[in-house]
Each structure stands twice: as structure tokens, then as C-alpha cells.
Specification:
By secondary structure, the chain is mostly helical. The chain is built from eleven helices and no strands. Helix 1 crosses helix 2, helix 1 packs antiparallel against helix 11 and helix 5 runs antiparallel to helix 7.
Amino acid sequence: MSLLSDILRQSFLGFLWVGSIAGILLGAGLLFRPQCVVQLNQYLSRWVGSDKLMVLLDRPRWIERLMYRHHRLVGVGVSVGALVVLYTFSVRYNLRVVSAFVPHGYWWLVDALIGILLLGSALAALIGLVVLIRPSLLRDIELSANRWISTEAVHAVCNGMNFSLEQSLIRHHHVAGISILSGSLYVLVVLGIALFRGPW
């Protein structure tokens, strides 16, 4: 396990070190050849519209007819799943195993989460029994709870081109170039020491 963690840590540091070299090139380009950076950015930029995908996703899908048609199967599945959770956290709950992962002083959070799980499982088991025996009792609750929330307005805001960051970087290319270049040089030196000479 220690060997695997060492390999992962070294790989992550190597990835950041290579990224710092890219940052040095970008900072130097913004300082000395900003037009080349603009042309490279325009060449690499691609606009991927999500309109077709949102047309497929942003529509209501009703599963009530399927659930009522197979209400016994759904009821048994919900009830069995809820009973398994109830059994696991009330009978087979291993305090010693959980205590190894919980920091000191956060036991109240674990107790609250387990309480929510037990309460939710008991409620799910009750709903599963109702669905199994008499699903029509849930129809009024279902009709009052069903709400269609469209994401069209949010999608219209997000699905647009925004060039403000790029324009700001090009407008202040000296400041951006010095900042990126100095930060990347610092990361290059510090991570280079950690990678090639070991931790200091």
C-alpha cells in the first residue's frame, strides 16, 4: 500500500511539474508574444453546443404507470432494501470499524447520519408495504408532490460564450505574464527539488 501511495504521489507531482513548464511557456508568451497566444487560443477553442442534448434531457418522464403495473415487484424491492439497511445499521453496526475512520469530536455527525438512515429506511419500508398491498393510497400524495421544474432558463444562461477572462488576460498581458511566469517558476523549482532530490 505504501508503494502504491508513493507511486501515485510521485505521478501527481510529476504531472504538476510538467504543468509548471507549460505555465512558464504561457507566461513567457503573454509577456513577449501575446498575439501568438491569442492565435493559439483561437485555434484551440471549440464551441460545443448542448442544445440537442438538453432537448432530450429537459422533458418530463413519467414512471407512475410502470410502477402501478408492477407494484408488487416495486413494493418488495423497496421493502427488502429498506429492511437490509435497517438490519445493517441496527444489528450488524460495527462501532470499532467506524471509529477508525471518524476524527475525534465528530461522533455527533455519525450518530445523526445513522439516525437519518434508520428513520429513512423505516419510512421506505412502510412505503414499500403500501406500494405492495394498496398503491392507490399513494396516488393523492403523488399528485400533490409531482412538480415539473424546467432547466431551460438556467441552460440559457450557461449555454453561451464568455470571453471576458481571455480579453482581460490579453488587455493586461504584462501583469498576467509576470504572475503566471513567477508562479510557474516557483512550482518548477519546489517540485523539482521534491521529485529529483527527495523531500527537503
